[in-house]
Amino acid sequence: MLHLVNKSPFESMALEDCLKYASKGSSILLYEDGVYAAMPGTGVADRMSAVAKDYKVYVLTEDLKQRGVDKVMDGIKETDYAGFVDLVEANKTASW
Amino acid sequence: MVVFRTAPYGAIYSFEGLENVLIMGAYDQDVSVLFIDDGVLAIKKGMDNSGTGIKDFSPTFRALEAYDIEKIFIDRSSMESRGLTLEDLVIEPEIIEADAVEKMMEEQKNFFMF
Known about the structure:
The complex is a heterodimer. Chain A has helices spanning 14-21, 45-54, 61-66, 81-90; strands at residues 2-5, 27-30, 56-60, 76-79, 93-95. Chain A is α/β, with parallel strands linked by helices. Chain A has a single domain (2-90), classed as Hypothetical Protein Ychn, Chain: A.
């Protein structure tokens, strides 16, 4: 299963709601304002470190660049639009 | 006063807020600007829209000074909880503490949230 999260973790419970139901080992792709969850040094960084251990967490490079986020936390993998398509092709998806 | 409290690209609010500030500035209104919550992300340095083609309006914040808009503030806790310091921003707002935000709003004749 691929979970798609496009809301800021500071303003929305979308990611936390997703994590309530997502089984460990499934994939989560952060895009649009969801990419802020991948920034190092934030108030949600500790939470995200733990999440990255239990899930395959991806973040969309183009949306990181748009928002000026030039560093990504360890354990979170960058992917581009083509990788996004590959993930969607390979999985059932849920948009949160 | 115009208050920015949303991230820049997920919704149109931040861009609309900037347009409002510039219009008020063009009419020589005495306008203050405050960045709180996800609003602080709108003035992050290093935006690169080459992958998305979405307009990057962060450089326009640097024009506020040209409109004589000099009362620009940022909430410290909002900035710090997003891992940011003044060096990460395209402009240099004055840092205020969260307990000063409401007082500042009360002193305004009008304020608009974006």
